[in-house]
Structure formats: structure tokens, C-alpha cells
Amino acid sequence: MGLSTTHLIIFLVIIIVIFGTKKLRNIGSDLGGAVKGFKDGMKDGAEKPTETAASATPVQQVAGAPAAAKETIDVEAKTKA
Q1: Where are the domains of the chain?
Q2: Which one, of 70, 69, 76, 81, lies nearest residue 52 by Cα?
């Protein structure tokens, strides 16, 4: 009562007829790129806390200093360059 080889072949033929081979190829490459990006993100996520913790400098805040928002530094921009 499960799926046999014949059922799977019929199912794949119907999918190919509905979507077409070009669309399925695009979906496959998009899915592969997404998986690769996720894996790279997981690697970078595991490495970033150790790198930023070692290179971070302490920042002192002065109470009532409105100019502090203008002097913020984009850390991501520094690491990308």
C-alpha cells in the first residue's frame, strides 16, 4: 500500500509536465544556493563571537551625551573592508 517505483515515476512525470524542466532546474539551483548560504552563515556565526570578543574595545558612555548617537561606528563595515 506504499509508494512503488511506478507511482514515483508517474508523480515525477506529472511534476515535470506542470513546472517544466527549466523551472525545476532554477528551483534546484536556488535551493542549493540557499543551503550553501545557510551553512556559510552557520560557520560565520560560530566564528564571530570569538573574533569580536578579542578585538572589541570597551566604550564609555557619558550620561546625557546626545552626540553619542552621531559618533557610532559600524563594526560590520570595518570587518568587510
Answers
A1: 5-80
A2: 76
